[in-house]
């Protein structure tokens, strides 16, 4: 959450809102992540809604309060509210594309609390997030309706803040129990982007696309979840189950099944169409298909033992090569013959595979002998599916399958796609990464969604060993400048001196018509990341320190914002 400067400018804040509005309507991922938690369709917001997002990002519940704060010269009460909201923003799990937060943010929240201990009792919401049981009892006794009052930066109930807060060495379970005993709604939730239902239970379970390290489960996950379920929380928490589908632990699913999750329970995700029809999935069946996709045999067995539908075809909400096939076929095609045998033994449909499907199955099972025999007819027939097979095997850490497909000559790095290296990197599958690099995979290639090379994906996933391998590998001049790899920058310029003036657009692979960094040169990447030696080298090679973005902001201004005074001095000296 950004902090207002000592002398905030209302005009500057208005410009931020207008810039956010333009970016959201252009479907910029960062802008959509900023807006998503508050509005149903982030790409269709109004200027007033953009202003509200800016206000909440700065710790105010409305644009009017932010405006009054600026115009009144920061009164103490307003400062306390801003600090309290800033604390709550740091202390809680964040979902959506904005999932790059994690342990450091939680530590920062603890530091804010240490500096301003009065914010712990600022509201029922901060008391819940810090786990102050006595404060909560007093507040709820004085004002019983506060138990479900929405507030704070996310306009959540106190129980929601208790469920999503992750202060280091703090359990909010006792605080949550106080709220539940006082009548707090155990089914409180918010709709991310108007589509995805994030409940109290979802927050307690944690995890998600950002990974366990950034989105940890509650430290007393089982006790807190049981307390909420005992008070009537719906065990059919599709979002909570989805968030934990990326790792093999089944504790959450065992709890959901114990408290009554059934095969007939529909997904509680909602679509954004006006009729608000629920998504066409059932929670358990969806989890079975996902378990097969990720290779989680124990989860598949758990679901099968609890009566999941083993006949309905894969109807995953995003298309994969197994959509339309039965669970038996999916298990075979994803390299899990033992689960296919279990499905057959339980009476499930056991439709045989055709030659093409058998080829895919043998690849995923790491059966090179069978795969090489079938490859004579089928290799190259479906290149998109073959890329998906290798990408999936790499993401699952299925080394035998990856090695089989490498030996068969599968394409390792295709421009404009998320490569096998990207998915192996974010999941930390070091042996797969080494196998792909040894086979010639391109370590510099950027993915189309985030326009980043594999090492950034490893860093995002907090996969230190994977990141170390990839940072030591070849990368383009922009990445090398950002990482301070002077040797690689020098090598690139020796081969092509004009790269000193190259723009980021030249390496971007995404489908977007424009990207906010398209204008940037290697000098910008070095400057904002504080790489002084690389900045000096680029300036010596003729890099232009005066270039600016579409709004006229120069590299000097960006370096100032990042606090790199030495680099600012270098740039200014060269510019004059």
In short:
The chain has 32 helices and two strands. With 576 residues, it is mostly helical.
Explain the overall architecture.
The protein has 576 residues and is mainly α. Among the domains are: 282-351, Ankyrin repeat-containing domain (Serine Threonine Protein Phosphatase 5, Tetratricopeptide repeat, Alpha Horseshoe); 353-474, Ankyrin repeat-containing domain (Serine Threonine Protein Phosphatase 5, Tetratricopeptide repeat, Alpha Horseshoe); 477-575, Serine Threonine Protein Phosphatase 5, Tetratricopeptide repeat (Alpha Horseshoe). 52% of the residues lie in helices and 1% in strands. It contains 32 helices and 2 strands. The chain has a two-stranded antiparallel sheet with strand order 1-2. Strand 1 and strand 2 (196-199) form a beta hairpin. It is flat. The mean pLDDT is 90.
């Amino acid at each position: 959450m950004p902090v207002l400067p000592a002398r905030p400018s209302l005009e500057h804040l208005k410009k931020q809102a207008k810039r956010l509005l333009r970016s959201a309507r252009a479907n910029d991922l960062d802008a959509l992540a900023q807006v998503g938690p508050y509005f149903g369709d982030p790409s269709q917001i109004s200027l007033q809604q953009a202003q509200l997002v800016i206000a909440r990002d700065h710790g105010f519940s409305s644009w009017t309060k932010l405006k009054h704060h600026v115009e009144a010269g920061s009164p103490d009460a307003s400062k306390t509210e801003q600090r309290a909201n800033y604390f709550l923003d740091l202390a809680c799990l964040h979902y959506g594309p904005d999932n790059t937060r994690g342990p450091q943010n939680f530590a920062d929240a603890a530091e804010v609390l240490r500096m301003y201990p009065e914010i712990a009792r600022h509201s029922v919401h901060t008391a819940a997030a810090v786990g102050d049981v006595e404060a909560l009892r007093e507040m709820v006794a004085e004002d019983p309706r506060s138990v479900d009052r929405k507030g704070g930066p996310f306009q959540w109930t106190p129980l929601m803040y208790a469920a999503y807060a992750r202060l280091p060495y703090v359990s909010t379970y006792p605080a949550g129990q106080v709220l539940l005993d006082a009548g707090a709604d155990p089914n409180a939730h918010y709709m991310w982007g108007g589509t995805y239902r994030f409940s109290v239970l979802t927050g307690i379970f944690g995890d998600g696309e950002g990974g366990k390290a950034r989105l940890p489960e509650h430290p007393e996950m089982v006790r807190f979840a049981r307390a909420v379920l005992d008070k009537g929380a719906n065990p059919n928490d599709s979002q909570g189950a989805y968030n934990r589908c990326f790792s093999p632990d089944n504790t959450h699913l065992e709890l959901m099944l114990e408290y009554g999750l059934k095969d007939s329970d529909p997904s509680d995700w909602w679509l954004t169409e006006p009729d608000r029809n629920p998504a066409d999935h059932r929670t358990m069946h969806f989890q079975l298909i996902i378990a097969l996709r990720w290779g989680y045999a124990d989860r598949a067995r758990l679901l099968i033992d609890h009566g999941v539908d083993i006949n309905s075809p894969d109807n995953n909400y995003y298309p994969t090569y197994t959509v339309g096939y039965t669970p038996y076929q999916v298990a075979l095609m994803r390299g899990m013959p033992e689960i296919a045998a279990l499905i057959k033994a339980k009476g499930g449909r056991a439709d045989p595979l055709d030659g093409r499907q058998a080829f895919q199955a043998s690849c995923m099972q790491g059966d090179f002998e069978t795969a090489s025999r079938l490859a004579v007819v089928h290799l190259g027939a479906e290149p998109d599916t073959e890329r998906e097979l290798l990408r999936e095997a790499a993401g699952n850490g299925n080394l035998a399958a990856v090695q089989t497909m490498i030996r068969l000559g599968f394409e390792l790095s295709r421009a404009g796609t998320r490569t096998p290296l990207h998915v192996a990197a974010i999941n930390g599958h070091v042996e797969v990464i080494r196998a792909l690099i040894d086979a010639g995979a391109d370590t510099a290639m950027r993915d189309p969604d985030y326009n980043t090379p594999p090492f950034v994906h490893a860093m995002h996933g907090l996969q230190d060993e994977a990141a170390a391998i990839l940072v030591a590998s070849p990368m383009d001049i922009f990445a090398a400048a950002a990482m301070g790899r002077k040797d690689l920058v020098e090598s690139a310029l020796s081969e092509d001196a004009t790269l000193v003036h190259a723009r980021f657009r030249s390496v971007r692979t995404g489908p977007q018509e424009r990207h906010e960094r398209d204008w940037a040169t290697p000098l910008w990447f070095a400057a904002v990341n504080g790489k002084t030696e690389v900045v000096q080298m680029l300036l010596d090679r003729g890099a232009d320190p005066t270039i600016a973005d579409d709004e006229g902001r120069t590299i000097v201004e960006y370096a100032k914002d990042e606090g790199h005074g030495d680099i600012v001095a270098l740039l200014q000296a060269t510019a004059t």
